[in-house]
């Protein structure tokens, strides 16, 4: 077992004199995926991320898998780890049980989202005391625990949101209720993240805000995620991919690496607090992006 790792994300922002680098993972879905993921962890751990985060399936569907992966990353691999909590459908006792489990693992930072209905959600019955919003969950947790709490922000607006303005009001409430940092949903539109930060600062949101980075891994994944998340696929991406053969996976991957590297380059140039990579449990793309930025002196 590795030496005990203590980490509150807000303390990283206070201590670092350079941008933070963080990676997001989800629990592998089967044994084959778990074996591949071992190599992914090894490759990405070599980049010495400031922290990694582990998602939590809709309606608690990956509760055990998330717990096991958090334990593995923190206590076996020695990586500073953040645990997600998606509270949709869970009752107060369920949430306490999950949080107590993470506390016992030594986790000190929880990233709080409402989450979505599980796939095939027609058969899922939410707990009658399930909390409707992340703002409610943050208040609930803050009253009972000493975790550092993170929250999600949406530069293009939440896909179910009334407006960008209303989204920001909810984000302000998340911060007022106890969120100490924000990670943004990814966006491909140039300037979208900085517009979001500017609007957030204008209404008094002063906590650190990290941009989420979603490289293009495959055309199908990019289209599916954009539909689910409400992300705009820009003309630059559409036209760039149209020039490539749909069967040329390597060319598509390289296009994604080039696009994301340029995006990160611009974000770093403008002084972002860090970069949070949605790895999709893959290593090659993120390793190439970060090594290229380091070689250029951007990181």
Core attributes:
299 residues; alpha/beta; TIM Barrel; nine-stranded parallel sheet; 46% helix; 14% strand; globular
Textual characterization of the structure:
- It is a single chain.
- The chain has helices at 9-15, 31-45, 63-76, 92-104, 134-144, 164-177, 192-202, 219-229, 235-242, 249-269, 284-296, and strands at 20-25, 51-54, 81-86, 109-113, 148-153, 179-184, 209-210, 212-213, 274-278.
- The chain is α/β, with parallel strands linked by helices and 299 residues long.
- It has a single domain (9-296), classed as Alpha-Beta Barrel (TIM Barrel).
- The chain has a 9-stranded parallel β-sheet with strand order 7-6-5-4-3-2-1-9-8, sandwiched between helices.
- Helix 10 (249-269) packs across helix 11 (284-296).
Short description:
By secondary structure, this protein is of the alpha/beta class. It contains eleven helices and nine strands. The protein has helices at 9-15, 31-45, 63-76, 92-104, 134-144, 164-177, 192-202, 219-229, 235-242, 249-269, 284-296, and strands spanning 20-25, 51-54, 81-86, 109-113, 148-153, 179-184, 209-210, 212-213, 274-278.
SSE order in H/E notation? Answer: HEHEHEHEHEHEHEEHHHEH
Uncertain ranges: none
- Rounded to the nearest angstrom, the radius of gyration is 19 Å
Q: Structural class, please? A: alpha/beta
**Helical coverage, percent range:** 40-55%
The largest sheet is: 9 strands, parallel
Q: Give the name of the CATH architecture.
A: Alpha-Beta Barrel
- Average pLDDT over all residues: 91
Strand order of the largest sheet: 7-6-5-4-3-2-1-9-8
User: What is the number of beta strands?
Assistant: 9
Proportion of strand residues: 5-15%
Shape: globular
**Distance between the ends:** 30 Å
What's the CATH first level? Alpha Beta
**Tally of DSSP helical segments:** 11
CATH topology: TIM Barrel
């Amino acid at each position: 077992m590795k030496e005990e790792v203590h980490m509150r994300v807000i303390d990283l922002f206070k201590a670092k004199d350079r941008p933070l680098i963080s990676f997001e993972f989800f629990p592998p879905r089967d044994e084959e995926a778990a074996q591949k993921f071992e190599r992914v962890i090894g490759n990405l751990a070599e980049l010495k991320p400031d922290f990694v985060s582990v998602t939590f399936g809709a309606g608690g569907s990956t509760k055990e898998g998330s717990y096991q992966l958090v334990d593995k990353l923190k206590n076996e691999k020695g990586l500073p780890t953040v645990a997600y909590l998606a509270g949709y459908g869970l009752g107060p006792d369920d949430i306490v049980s999950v949080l107590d489990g993470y506390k016992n693992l030594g986790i000190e930072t929880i990233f709080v989202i409402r989450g979505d209905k599980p796939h095939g959600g027609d058969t899922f019955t939410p707990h009658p005391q399930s909390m409707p919003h992340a703002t409610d969950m943050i208040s609930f947790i803050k009253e009972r625990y000493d975790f550092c709490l993170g929250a999600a922000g949406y530069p293009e607006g939440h896909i179910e949101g009334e407006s960008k303005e209303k989204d920001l009001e909810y984000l302000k409430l998340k911060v007022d209720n106890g969120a100490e940092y924000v990670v943004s949903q990814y966006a491909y539109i140039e300037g979208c993240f900085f517009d979001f930060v500017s609007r957030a600062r204008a209404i008094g949101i002063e906590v650190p805000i990290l941009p989420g980075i979603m490289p293009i891994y495959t055309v199908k994944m990019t289209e599916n995620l954009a539909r689910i998340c409400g992300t705009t696929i820009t003309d630059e991406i559409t036209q760039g991919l149209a020039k490539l053969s749909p069967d040329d996976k390597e060319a598509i991957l390289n296009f994604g690496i080039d696009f994301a590297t340029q995006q990160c380059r611009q974000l770093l140039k403008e002084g972002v607090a860090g970069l949070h990579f949605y790895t999709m449990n893959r290593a090659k793309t993120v390793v190439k992006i970060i090594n290229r930025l380091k070689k250029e002196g951007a990181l």
